[in-house]
Amino acid sequence: MNYAQILWKEHHECFIADYPPPPEMRAVSVKETRRATVIAFFAWTIAVYDFIMFGTLLPDISSSFKWSTSTSLLVSTLVSVGTFVIVIFVGPLVDRLGRRRGMMISVAGTAVSSATTALAMNAGYLVGVRSISGLGLAEQSINATYLNELYEVTEDKKIKRNQGLVYSMVQTGWPIGAMVAAGFVAIVTAIFGVGSWRIAFVLATIPAIIVALVCRSLSESPQFVLNKYIRDLRKAGHAEEAAKVAAAAGLDNQTAAPLARIFQGKHLRNTLVLSLSWIINWFGIQTFSVLGTTVLQTGKGINATGALVLVVLSNIVGALGYLTHGFLGDRFGRKRVIIVGWILGGIFFAALMLGPSNTAYVLITYMLGLFFLLGPYAAIMFFQAECYDSDCRATGGSFITAMSQPGAIIGGFILTGLTAASVSFSTAALVVGALGTLVSGFIMMAAKPVAPAHRDEFGVESEVRS
């Protein structure tokens, strides 16, 4: 029995007769915690796999439709516009429907995105169906919210002590998903030949469907269950009782919509700073991760096969970057790790674009760039989950994550404009990608440090460190 239930039992006359008591803020078992962590890893990997595969196959798709480089970049940019529209609505949905359903919806959206892409016949249709990939991209903020809440009340002491490191293992789904996408494309191309991008997308639906079905077995987070109870109590006209239950459980009693909450009080500063950081940093993501093969082929003169090999090798190092930044974030503070990582990432990408096209040099600088560009996301996803109260946590996380798409859009338009103006792609990548990564690190300096929540035996939150 948790603190809210004790209060209910001792002061039941203060509440409503015949109304069910508050749900227990239960402890999450070791087995449940670890199982949810593994499922979240596969869900994110599959989402990234579909998302990155589009960028990896974009040169092939462009060739199939006979697009110019500028047209190809414009299509990629318009896809980001549609993706943003989808992602921005996912957070409030998850704060209403639950983290478990959110996981299921996001991975199922990935399957739909892959299947419909295989049927693309023109640019307009492709932009529309690729926008659905926003459901998959939102999976990142959903699993950050879900795991953050599970780790708060888990019985697994090892995970509780090393939350950032464990979550970084989940976040390695980005480089691993990118690596698998590149490897899968290479295999499909070798078997079916150039122009087999439709087959690649059809086959990609299979793992997404499997993971979506597995997500059905997840349990809802205790915090969401209690927040839903409080909302239902308030909807039934018992606002005073809802406030008492929230206070007893250490939760804020808020009547404002989650989207409004993230722009109020203690949440406002980090909402603005983190959103701007994501926008600018995604200049680098769009350039060097999503369009990585284009950078290597067009910007550095690496052939198609060599570019795929370099992407695979570089993303292995990128995965190590997640683990490293997750581990360091637990020990030195997530904010510090993000700042240093992105500044170094910008420096290495500048070295990549300004240096020679020697394969060894390109591999080393591209590896180190991805290490410091992608790795800090292991820290920032958990950092931003810690920034918000549980009633608006998914909304805050998904809103900030959605800012990746304005970043991709703006960065994409600048890349398109520069290349259309006959600026070399190498120079465009330097100005947009490398400089954007560098600047995002400096913007993060304005973020407000947060103290991760700790729950005592009664389920009441308290701050333990900054």
Give the topology.
Blueprint: H1 3-10, H2 30-65, H3 69-97, H4 99-117, H5 123-130, H6 133-137, H7 139-152, H8 157-161, H9 163-171, H10 173-192, H11 197-215, H12 222-235, H13 239-248, H14 258-261, H15 265-290, H16 292-299, H17 304-332, H18 334-354, H19 359-374, H20 377-386, H21 393-402, H22 404-420, H23 425-443, E1 453-455, E2 461-463
Antiparallel strand pairs: 1-2
Helix pairs in contact: 1-13, 2-3, 2-4, 2-7, 2-9, 2-10, 2-11, 3-4, 3-5, 3-21, 3-22, 4-7, 4-11, 7-20, 7-21, 9-17, 9-20, 10-17, 12-13, 15-19, 15-21, 15-22, 15-23, 16-17, 17-18, 17-19, 18-19, 18-20, 18-23, 20-21, 22-23
Outline the structure in words.
With 466 residues, the protein is an all-alpha fold. It is 76% helix and 1% strand. The chain contains 23 helices and 2 strands. The model is unreliable at 454-466 (pLDDT under 50).
Order of helices and strands: HHHHHHHHHHHHHHHHHHHHHHHEE
Based on secondary structure, the structural category is: mainly alpha
Q: Major sheet: order of its strands?
A: 1-2
The tally of strands reads 2
Largest sheet report: 2 strands, antiparallel
The level of helicity is: over 70%
Distance between the termini: 30 Å
* Percentage of β-strand residues: under 5%
Number of helical regions: 23
Radius of gyration: 22 Å
Stretches where pLDDT is under 50 for at least 5 consecutive residues are 454-466
Shape: globular
What do the pLDDT scores average to? 83
